[in-house]
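Journal club side-thread
Mid-discussion, someone asked how the predicted structure for our own chain would compare to the paper's figures. Pasting it here so we can look after the session.
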Amino acid sequence: MPDDFVIARNPEEGTSLPYILRVPYGERGILLKARETWPRTSKVYCHRMEEWPADAEIVERVPTRACVRRGASIDLVLDRGRENRSQFVMSFVRGGRQVIFWQTARTTKQARPAVRTPTARASGLPRVDIVVDTQERYAWSFRDHQVETTRARLAAGDYAVLRGGEVVGAVERKNLGDLVSSLTTGKLKFQLAALASVPHAAVVVEDRYSQVFRHEVVRPAVIAEGLAECQVRFPQVPIVFCETRKLAQEWTYRFLGAALAAADHEEPATAYFADLPAAAPLAPREPTAAEVRAWAQAQGLAVSDRGRVSGEVREAFLRAHDPPTGH
């Protein structure tokens, strides 16, 4: 039977890989440094280590059902109800350096959706200047696009574009965990209210909507109902599910570009129409024969069903509809 799968804290100071793993493959097992304790939202980068520290602080120890190598990967099945299946994939990068990624079926689908993001400029703009909120952690870089980012405190959203010093477009970014947390605590409604004050705003979620119905802490019906209520209350601020971090970034880039282009068009258009001379008031319109006939029939006056309306009936209509004059 395979040994236990063990996760411990890496005692090495200043490391970007704060956890160490013992994968029960072979006689001694494989020792790895890792960035996370489980690949929940994306693939986890791992690096080989030579020796297990004697003073390692154990974080988790789980019995293993199976640990089998298949080609360049090791399939790991743990003896627990959830987060029990994963895979360690061996690969090589430039220079022949070996890299190891820890993944699940979910993170594999998220990391490699069957799409390729375009490189065309957003709304044809040569560059989009995006302001990133100072409290935004692990911000998108937009490195594949013509974007210049700066940091500043934003009153609404995590990413915004400005025109004339005013925010004209804003996007609040969330992963599914953050979305559910802010929804159940009531924070999301305050965020939506702030976004509603921006001409163009949205909430973008780095996950699929289907994952709402697989949530294991909050009842899916509670999440779905809460999201529906938020959209009814704030219909001008859409909540968009974009499947992956990369696609969420792409959607945000396009949305903010469109918001900026709309602001660029709105400003000269407003000035143009404001400068138009005021038109003279129109003279009152002469009533049609059909209008006079309908009024006369309602008043019980004798009038033909077709043809010309007599001058007496028309004069009576005009007297009845003349505005009263003051003396």
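Post-session note: The mean pLDDT is 86.
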